[in-house]
Amino acid sequence: MRKFLVVVLVLVVAGGVLGSWRGWFSVSKEGTVDVEVNPAKVKQDKDTFSKTVGEKAKAMKNRVVGLWEKSEGLTGDDKARAQKELGELNNQHDRIEQQIKELEVADQDRFESIKQDLSKTLGEVEKKIEDLRKKLEKGKDR
Q1: How much is the pTM?
Q2: How far is 33 from 15, CA to CA, in rounded Å?
């Protein structure tokens, strides 16, 4: 329970710092603390991120299609392994597409969570695609 509370506290502080830094809200001290949320800035950041992630997801899908084509030249176990990995990449791409749709309707807190997860997932998928590309290149050299 203690660890959970620490995690929640860290997330709240991180969200506050990020929100203030990105201009989503401001705090003024004039005897009392007033917090002003800037929904236009939040929406602008969400739209920009959604567009960028959407473009990356489309490019990723195109790279996976290219790898499927390369895997067709393989035989036996090499082909089966490559296509299994490509199937997993397709599943991850579908998950990314679902998260992009969720991002469109997410509130500020959910947006941050999805944004962090998407950034991490995209990085992992890019690495897997590159690793598989290298394997396929080695397979063709044989």
Answers
A1: 0.65
A2: 18
